[in-house]
Amino acid sequence: MKRCAWCGSDPIYVKYHDEVWGRPVSDSRDLFAKLCLDGQQAGLSWITILKKQDNYYEAYDNFNPEIIQHYDQKKIEALLQNKGIVRNKLKVQSIIKNAKGYLAIESKGQSFSDYLWSFIGDKPIQNNWKTFEEIPVTSTESEAMAKDLKKKGFSFVGSTICYAFMQAVGMVQDHTTDCHCYISCQEEAAKFDLKQ
Questions:
Q1: What per-residue string of b and e applies to 92-109 under the rule 16 or more CB within 10 Å gives b?
Q2: What is the domain range of residue 91?
Q3: pLDDT tens series, the chain, 196 aa
Q4: Which of 56, 73, 78, 114 has the maximum number of C-beta atoms within 10 A of its C-beta?
Q5: 31 neighbors 112 (Cβ within 8 angstroms)
Q6: Is residue 4 part of a domain?
Q7: Contact in structure between 1 and 15 (CB atoms under 8 Å)
């Protein structure tokens, strides 16, 4: 079965590629969690974070921003001792900052999902790449998203991280045309309705 060149053969990566990557996500809390996890990847391989994903959900109260915003120094110290996650002080603090940013957006009456999807006009961008080498690592949309997120207090949200996030949550459909997921992801993207 043909898959995108980046996928490899690790069962965790294969499952992620086949079932998650490129499939549109509209739930605000899911998007928040995925954005935070993508930020944790900075300087590391994605599979490192993928293997720790369950630990992250456990360590960060299922990525509940209302709880995370109140993390104190004691909680930060506990996270820095947690071998199940990346123990980097800036990355730990970034999730707390991102939770506050998330809540600030939602407090103004806009869902986090609506906010993020607005950068691409609420509909997935359909790409038709033939090879992995053609796929960009950034875009004008991811640059705009990164700039605005930073302005709103988020961190570890550079343009490259935002583009990887957009790929993962189906905002851009970047499966190569020879991948067995290409057609099913294109179909999901075509049917996607943010308002449903």
A1: bebbbbbbbbbeebbeee
A2: 11-191
A3: 899 999 989 999 999 999 999 999 999 999 999 999 999 998 898 999 999 999 999 999 999 999 999 999 999 999 999 999 999 999 999 999 999 999 999 999 999 999 999 999 999 999 999 999 999 999 999 999 999 999 999 999 999 999 999 999 999 999 999 999 999 999 999 999 887 6
A4: 56
A5: yes
A6: no
A7: no
Q: Nearest 5 degrees, angle CA 106-CA 112-CA 116?
A: 140
End-to-end CA distance of the chain, in Å?
A: 33
Residue 3 lies in a domain: no
Count of C-beta atoms within a 10 Å radius of residue 123: 14
Domain total in the chain = 1
The amino acid occupying position 78 is: A
Rounded Cα–Cα distance for residues 196 and 193 (Å): 6
Question: Is 196 part of any domain?
Answer: no
Where do runs of H (alpha helix) occur along 45-181?
A: 46-59, 65-68, 73-80, 89-107, 112-117, 140-151, 159-168
Q: Does any domain span residue 31?
A: yes
Longest dimension (CA), the chain: 50
